[in-house]
Specification:
The chain is an alpha/beta fold and 339 residues long. Helix content is 31%, strand content 22%.
């Protein structure tokens, strides 16, 4: 057994100087309270975290290896061709690549968003003709291994599902134990997503200020992916206001950037984290949004990969957001070989 000594770690709380064990390529925290031993421990001058995740990326528009190099252990692709998605490896990813979970194709109304967008790769959009087509559309995604289902209801860009078709797609996904992620844009579309039982919004709503009753209903039934940094001006102010009230009502937030949409950093994004602080999240809540699952449980399970950031967290939140962009992914084997 090898041990590493770090200056700080996050296991759902800050630990201070901590020792982690390395056994068979797995990283454990079964000795977090024991002081470091310079004679036997491998020193790592930084802070350890469970792996960071971006819950909204488009891998047809951005290189997955660049995202891994930018400190992301896991990414969620929200719209791709089925042949591309089918090639993404399950389980432990190969070296240099993040773990990939995916939705498969965009499910949309005939002629709906993003079928007319140049950035949408050929074959990445599946038009659903009505309620009777919902089961087939969802099953096609699940058969290639989709982890969740992506729907678009963007009335600002074209036709959208009628209520019956949207409800049928959600019901079909839930029958197959898949959650539904919706791109909801345009007046009333977030409300329709809530009413239909959608589980996750792919973006914090930014085209309208949601009423407090709708915010409370959304907080009770769904999660929101942040994607604040793709906006500026009035759109950003609207999104931050909606997210602040969603969070205050008990809604759970996932960090996500819509990577591939414009000139965004290929990795952890300081502007996105700063937006979460603007929306009232604490540091612990920001880290929960970045980390998939309970941090203590992740370490107790012995992950094969972690994220680490050189140095220790700075006191100012804006500096903290920038500091997190130094994240790098390391495997237990990497750390053992560094001894």
């Amino acid at each position: 057994m090898t041990t590493i000594a770090v200056r700080e770690a996050w296991i759902g709380r800050w630990t201070g100087p901590t020792r982690f064990t390395l056994r068979g390529g797995r990283i454990g925290s079964d000795a977090p309270e024991r002081p470091a031993d310079p004679a036997t421990d491998l020193p790592l001058d930084g802070t350890l975290f469970p792996g960071f995740r971006d819950a909204h990326v488009h891998l047809n528009l951005v290189d997955a290896r660049a995202l891994f190099a930018g400190g992301l252990d896991e990414v969620h692709d929200l719209g791709a061709r089925l042949d591309a998605a089918a090639g993404w490896r399950r389980g432990d990813p190969p070296p240099g690549l993040p773990r990939i979970r995916f939705a498969g194709q965009f499910l949309t109304a005939p002629g709906g968003y993003p079928s007319d967008r140049a950035w949408a790769a050929a074959g990445s959009v599946r038009e659903v003709t009505g309620p009777d087509d919902a089961d087939a559309a969802v099953t096609e995604q699940v058969c290639v291994g989709a982890d969740f289902i992506k729907v678009t209801v963007n009335s600002a860009a074209g036709p959208v599902f009628d209520d019956d078709t949207l409800a049928a797609v959600v019901a079909a996904a839930h029958r197959l134990s898949r959650s539904v992620v919706a791109h909801a844009e345009g007046d009333g579309q977030a409300a329709r997503a809530v009413a239909a039982g959608v589980d996750v919004l792919a973006h914090t709503p930014w085209t309208e200020r949601l009423g407090d009753d709708l915010i409370r209903a959304a907080a009770a039934s769904m999660r929101w992916i942040s994607t604040l940094a793709i906006h500026d001006g009035a759109d950003r102010l609207c999104a931050v206001d909606n997210l602040r009230r969603f969070h205050a009502a008990g809604g759970r937030v996932r960090y996500g950037t819509d990577l591939g949409n414009g000139d965004l950093p290929l990795g952890v994004n300081a502007a996105e984290i700063a937006g979460l602080f603007d929306a009232g999240l604490t540091r612990a809540e920001v880290l929960a949004a970045l980390i998939d699952g309970d941090a203590a449980a992740r370490f107790a399970a012995g992950p094969r990969r972690i994220c680490w950031v050189p140095g220790v967290p700075p006191p100012d939140d804006r500096d903290f957001a920038t500091w997190l962009t130094g994240s790098r992914v390391a495997t237990g084997t990497d750390l053992e070989e560094a001894q």
